[in-house]
Write a structure and sequence with these properties.
By secondary structure, the chain is α/β, with parallel strands linked by helices. The chain is 31% helix and 24% strand. It contains twelve helices and 23 strands. The strands form six sheets. The chain has a four-stranded mixed β-sheet, covered by helices on one side. It has a four-stranded mixed β-sheet with strand order 4-5-3-14, with helices on one face. Strands 6-7-9-8 form a four-stranded mixed β-sheet, with helices on one face. Helix 3 links the parallel strand 6 and strand 7. Helix 5 runs parallel beside helix 6. The two termini are 14 Å apart.
C-alpha cells in the first residue's frame, strides 16, 4: 500500500481518538488472569491487540467478541495448558513481553517468538528476572533475544531489573506477580524510561482488584487474585498526536474527542510541547481543541515519559523557526525499528538537518521538499511521515499498511477529513 500526501493549509479536523493500545493489552492480560468472566468495552482492534488475544487463547483462555467489546473468561491465575505452546507474536513487542511474564503461570514450556526485527530486540533483562523468580528460561537462537522459552511455575520473591531499556519488562513482571506464591519485591536500576507506562500498568491492576505498592524505584505486589470486572478502554493519546501535529504544522483547528485530559498516558504531554512551540490548546467539553496559525518555535523537550510521540514531535520540529532538541530517547533504538535512526533518515530525506546524540536528537529546519519514505514496517514512522507530507507536500509513503499495528483506520480518517 502506498499513500501520496500533498501540502495542506488551514485544516479543519474533528476526529475521535481510537481506543488505547497500551490499556487494551493490559486489560486483556488482567482479565485473562482473573477469577471469572470480564467484559472489556471498546478495546482497540488492531494487529498488536489481536496478537495478544491470540496468545492468550493459545494459553487456554477464552477470548470472544461480544458486540463492540470482548468477553474474557479468566484462568484464575494458572493457565491450563495441555502441552508445550509456541506463540508467534510477529512484530508486537508489547505482546511478547507481557506474555513472557505470565508464561510463568504455565507448567508446560511456552516459546515466544516473532518477526526478524523482533528477534533483534533484547529481552535478556526480563529473562534474567524471570529466572531469579523461579521460572525456567531458555533461548533457542541467541542468548538474551527471542525466541525465548519460559516455563513455570515461578515462585516470585525479590528481583532486580534494569529500567533503561523497556518499561514493558517491568510491566510483564508486575502483571504476573499476584499469581506467584511469594508475590514480588522488584527493584529497578535507574535511569528509568517510559515510567508513565508503569502507571498505566498499576492502574489496570488496581481496576482488577490487585494492589501494587511503589516507593521510588521499588515495587511490591502481594499474592492475590485478579477480580473479574467490566473495563472500558479510554482513548489513545499516542494516536491522537498525529492529528494535533497536523493542525500545528498546517495551521487551522483540530478537535479530538474520546480523550481523558486527566489520563495517566504519558503521551498526553505531547500537546504541552505543541503549546510551547506556539499552538493554542483548549480542553473543552466536546474534546481537546488545538488551534494554530502554523508559526512554530523550536523548543527543548524531555520526552522520556512520552516515547511514542517522539517521532511526531520531530516531524513538527522540521517546520519550526529554529532548532528543537528532544532528550530522553536512547531506548527508542529498541522499538519496532531503530526510531532514532528513522528520525535521522526520514527528516534528512526531506531537507531537515538532524544531529543524533546518545540520548538526544536535534532537528534544525531547512528548506523542505518531497521524498519517498519507507517506514520499514514501523507504524509510528509511517504516521509521522503523514505529518511531514501534509506540511511539505510531495511525500510518498510506501508500505503504509503497517499502521494496522496500532491504528488500522488512520489513512481512512485522513481521507474522510479531506486530507488525502
Amino acid at each position: 500500500m502506498e499513500v501520496n500526501l500533498s501540502r495542506r493549509s488551514g485544516v479543519e479536523i474533528r476526529v475521535a481518538a481510537p481506543p488505547s493500545k497500551s490499556l487494551t493489552h493490559r486489560a486483556l492480560v488482567a482479565a485473562a488472569l482473573a477469577d471469572g468472566v470480564s467484559e472489556i468495552l471498546r478495546p482497540l482492534a488492531s494487529e498488536d491487540t489481536t496478537l495478544t488475544s491470540q496468545g492468550l487463547r493459545a494459553l487456554g483462555v477464552a477470548v470472544e467478541a461480544n458486540g463492540d467489546g470482548l468477553s474474557v473468561r479468566g484462568c484464575g491465575g494458572r493457565f491450563q495448558t495441555r502441552g508445550p505452546v509456541t506463540l508467534d507474536l510477529r512484530n508486537s513487542g508489547t505482546s511478547l513481553r507481557l506474555l513472557a511474564g505470565v508464561a510463568t503461570l504455565s507448567t508446560f514450556p511456552v516459546t515466544l517468538t516473532g518477526s526478524a526485527r523482533m528477534q533483534e530486540r533484547p529481552v535478556g533483562p526480563l529473562g534474567d528476572a524471570i529466572a531469579a523468580l523461579g521460572g525456567e528460561v531458555g533461548y533457542t537462537v541467541r542468548p538474551g533475544y527471542p525466541p525465548i522459552t519460559v516455563r513455570g511455575p515461578a515462585r516470585g520473591g525479590a528481583a532486580v531489573i534494569r529500567g533503561d531499556i523497556s518499561s514493558q519488562f517491568v510491566s510483564s513482571l508486575l502483571m504476573a506477580a499476584p499469581c506467584w506464591e511469594d508475590g514480588l519485591d522488584l527493584t529497578l536500576i535507574p535511569p528509568l524510561v517510559s515510567v508513565s507506562y508503569l502507571d498505566l500498568t498499576a492502574a489496570v491492576m488496581r481496576s482488577f482488584g490487585v494492589e501494587i505498592m511503589r516507593e521510588g524505584e521499588h515495587f511490591s505486589v502481594s499474592p492475590g487474585v485478579y477480580r473479574r470486572r467490566i473495563y472500558a478502554v479510554e482513548g489513545d493519546w499516542s494516536s491522537a498526536s498525529y492529528f494535533f501535529a497536523i493542525g500545528a504544522v498546517c495551521g487551522g483547528r483540530v478537535v479530538v474527542e474520546n480523550l481523558d485530559p486527566a489520563s495517566l498516558q504519558g503521551d498526553r504531554l505531547f500537546v504541552e510541547a505543541l503549546e510551547m512551540m506556539g499552538a493554542s490548546v483548549r480542553y473543552g467539553e466536546d474534546g481537546i481543541v488545538l488551534e494554530s496559525n502554523g508559526d512554530l518555535d523550536g523548543i527543548e523537550a524531555d520526552m522520556a515519559a512520552a516515547p511514542d510521540t517522539v517521532q511526531t514531535l520531530a516531524a513538527v520540529a522540521a517546520f519550526a523557526r529554529g532548532p528543537t532538541r528532544i532528550t530522553g530517547i536512547a531506548h527508542l533504538r529498541y522499538k519496532e525499528s531503530d526510531r532514532i535512526a528513522a528520525i535521522e533518515r526520514v527528516l534528512g530525506s526531506v531537507g531537515a538537518r538532524v544531529v543524533v546524540e546518545e540520548d538526544a536528537v536535534t532537528i534544525t529546519p531547512g528548506p523542505l521538499h518531497g521524498a519517498t519514505v519507507d517506514p520499514e514496517n514501523d507504524h509510528r514512522t509511517a504516521m509521522s511521515a503523514a505529518v511531514i507530507g501534509l506540511g511539505a507536500g510531495g511525500v510518498r509513503v510506501t508500505g503504509a499498511g503497517c499502521v494496522d499495528k496500532s491504528f488500522p483506520q488512520f489513512w481512512n480518517v485522513l481521507q474522510e477529513a479531506g486530507l488525502l
